[in-house]
Amino acid sequence: MAYFSRVVGTGSGFPERVMTNAEFEEILDTSDEWIRTRTGIETRRISDRLKGETTLSHSEKAARNAMEAAGITGEDIDCIIIGTVTPDSVMPTTANQLQAKLGAHRAFSFDLQAACSGFVYGLSVADAFIRQGQVKTALVIGAETLSSIMNWRDRGTCVLFGDGAGAVILQRTEDPAHSVIATRIHSDGRHGSILKIEHGYGKVPPYAAEYRHDLAKVQMVGSEIFKLAVRNMCESAQALLDSQNLKPDQVDFFLFHQANLRIIDMCMKTLGVPPEKTWLNVNKYGNTSAATLPVGLDEALRSGAVKPGQLVLMATFGGGVTWGTALIRL
Ligand code: UT7
């Protein structure tokens, strides 16, 4: 018996506070105009830890919305994977904690770290578990509280990122026509230094004499990331389509990692994607790392921009560097 994974529900979850570009003008040498024209970002959501808004709470909201859409309860879930670089704690994992909250007592659960590619990596892993027969129902989440790892004095990074979560429920099917058709995940550790958090872990722990708070936050060489993001997302997407004997114009809908509107535009031009065949929300949420793609899929489905039965290609790129693509028939 051959098994495949079908997307049966999606959901999103965000903290309440909306932070505008104008607010950055108060604290940094930046402007709404620069942020809008260089990135497309207008607002982002920022968590209030004291109100209990964390990666776990965003994940729980997204998961409950996706479970409602799928018509399942926690008891139905066999596997929970959360792609995140901002877990509530290292141990137990955020996925372990979510398992308890959802009453998913039969499931196994773990966090997965692949920076902005965390959701596509998680989807790929969950799909493999389903194909192999071990899992019938998987909850795959991309969730971040990036505001907690920003250097709020670095205008080159802190204006770009935001908090939130997106979730997808995958269910085992024997119908290959409506399924995750193929995924590709990649990494190239040689470029690790262009997007990194250096301090705060084993090499320079917080108790080390040389530990620096600013180096325990995100540092990025934006222009290098920009070039690699466009090239690698397009190459991976093209290779995946080639492997399926498909041309880009046979794909109904494209979801690109929402890091920068100019990156998305360049990918669309390279692959020949018209504007009506994609979803943009980088203006509202900024870059939410692993959350951008499942949130985009959720919003596009709920708005009717993409419909059950359509062929969707998603592509992502992030620190590591990591990148990947997934082709899904909804
Ligand atoms: O999720 C995956 C990882 N993230 C990404 O994919 C992000 C990829 N990179 C980018 O989106 C862009 O490279 C940025 C938006 C980060 C930067 O845009 P850029 O056009 O590549 O600008 P740049 O880094 O070359 O900087 C141009 C100028 C610099 O000033 P000088 O040195 O030319 O005087 C920066 O200091 O813009 C300056 N700058 C700013 N100015 C006002 C950088 N950040 C800001 C800011 N406000 N917030």
What report would you give on this structure?
This protein has 330 residues and is α/β, with parallel strands linked by helices. It folds into 2 domains: 4-173, Thiolase/Chalcone synthase (Peroxisomal Thiolase, Chain A, domain 1, 3-Layer(aba) Sandwich), CATH 3.40.47.10; 180-329, Peroxisomal Thiolase, Chain A, domain 1, CATH 3.40.47. The chain is built from 9 helices and 13 strands. The protein has helices at 21-27, 32-39, 55-70, 94-102, 118-132, 222-243, 261-271, 282-285, 292-303, and strands at 4-13, 17-20, 43-46, 79-83, 108-112, 137-145, 163-173, 180-187, 195-196, 219-220, 253-256, 311-318, 322-329. The chain has a 5-stranded mixed β-sheet, sandwiched between helices. Helix 3 packs across helix 4 and helix 6 (222-243) packs parallel to helix 7 (261-271). The protein is globular, with a radius of gyration of 19 Å. The mean pLDDT is 98. Oxa(dethia)-CoA is lined by residues 30, 34-35, 38-39, 116, 155-156, 159, 195, 222-223, 225-226, 229, 259-260, 263, 287, 317-318.
Number of helices in the DSSP assignment:
9
Helix percentage: 25-40%
Give the spatial strand order of the biggest sheet.
Answer: 1-7-6-4-5
CATH architecture of the largest domain: 3-Layer(aba) Sandwich
CATH class of the largest domain: Alpha Beta
**Total beta strands:** 13
Shape: globular
Structural class: alpha/beta
- CATH topology grouping of the largest domain: Peroxisomal Thiolase, Chain A, domain 1
Helix and strand succession?
A: EEHHEHEHEHEEEEEHEHHHEE
Name given to the CATH homologous superfamily of the largest domain: Thiolase/Chalcone synthase
How many domains? The number is 2
The hetero compounds bound to this protein are: oxa(dethia)-CoA
